[in-house]
Amino acid sequence: MPRPALALLVGLALAAAAPAADPPRKAENVLVVTLDGFRWQEFFEGADESLLDAKQGVRDLPGLKQRYGRDTPKARREALLPFLWGTVAKRGQVFGNPAKKSPARITNGLKFSYPGYSEMFCGFPDPRINSNAKRENPNRNVFEFLAGRPGFQGRVEVVGTWDVFPSIFRTRKSGLPILAGWEPIKADKLTEWERSLNETMALIPRYWPDNAFDVFTMGAARSAIERRKPRVLYVALGETDEWAHGRRYDLYLDSARNSDRWLAETWERLQADPQYRGKTALVVTTDHGRGSTRVDWTDHGKGVPGAEFIWMVVLGPDTPAVGEVEGVEVTQSQVAATVAALVGEDFCATDAKVARPLPVFGR
To answer: Which of 7, 29, 101, 330, by CA, is between 20 and 30 Å from 176?
Structure first.
């Protein structure tokens, strides 16, 4: 055989044997939202009928049942989270339903917030992260990583209700822009609604000294989107956890419903903006679970059985519409690499300990 023909055949064979390159991602932006301590039970089954009574802090039982009481778990979850189940789940992928043999677990073993957020966004559990104290995280997180990538500089932001987030994201070292806790919106020329929000924050009683009400974090997120149009935005909502610890099941449910409403409004706003429309991925999850009984549903931590189980939702232009994923076990540590992969970046390359992304790009 002539040498040119032989070379051509060898080249074709090698090309056929080589693995196909991943197609370029359509998503250019990603919005990440967490509902602190929101149980998988309510996420997948809606309001828990065994907790609808005065002993669980319910003040207006008829009103609560009217809002969230339905005949089936499917109807109850749709009443509680109409956007997440009516839009996101239908167009994206949902992980964590034990009934579908698809559990989602945290792996840090501690089952509370700082270890959970660190595992979620650093990509692995770290035994050094063993309290909620404001100590700087020794590990790089996915937002810090993305903020240093080409095209993302100055386009990554974090807003959250909890004042520990600056430590979790080691902002003194990373320089990651963050507004956390009871910090007002800061800008040279505040809009009327931004001024109103800041004035309300200054006047309202600080029910939790270290955790602001969700409405202020929601407002800060809206301000970030309208003013700076970040490519990566993380919004950490916290009222679900706080009201659960206070054994106020009614306010726990209402806070989850308010989070869903804000998500719907924010997603609609993003789809009306050419920068975001059709080019934005969404990740929604939680930092830990809670107990499963009338006694311990308010609690979480190392000694609470079942608090290691969580849930995750992913939606985006590169994510096939699978709905509830069946027969796939995932971990919280996979969230970090997933956030990066959704916008075409490889966070796993930064550290061998980082877990692989969730299987959201086709199976």
So the answer is: 330
Query: What whole-number percentage of the chain has pLDDT above 70?
Result: 93
Q: What is the SS3 string spanning 36-63?
A: CCCCHHHHHHCCCHHHCCHHHCCCCHHH
- Tell me the CB-side half-sphere exposure of residue 321, using CA atoms within 13 A: 7
CA distance 222 to 244: 26
Q: Residue 162: enclosing H or E segment and its boundaries? A: none
User: ∠ CA(293), CA(78), CA(33), 5° rounding?
Assistant: 80
CA distance 338 to 316: 12
Measured CA to CA, the distance from residue 154 to residue 93 in angstroms comes to 30
pLDDT value at position 236? 98
Q: Identify the pLDDT of residue 21.
A: 57
| Span 246-262, average pLDDT | 98
Phi, psi of 52 (to 5 degrees): -90, 75
Closest CA to 203 of 221, 182, 224: 182
pTM as predicted = 0.93
Beta bridge partners of 285: 34, 312
Strand order in the sheet with 323-324: 178-180, 156-160, 232-237, 29-35, 280-285, 312-315, 93-95, 323-324
- In single-letter form, the type of residue at position 312 comes to M
Contact yes or no for 161/181 (Cβ under 8 A): yes
Q: Are 255 and 243 in contact (CB under 8 A)?
A: yes
**Average of per-residue pLDDT across 270-292:** 98
DSSP state, 152?
Answer: T
Q: Is the pLDDT of residue 78 over 90?
A: yes
Q: Which of 327, 345, 310, 235 is nearest to 359 (CA)?
A: 327
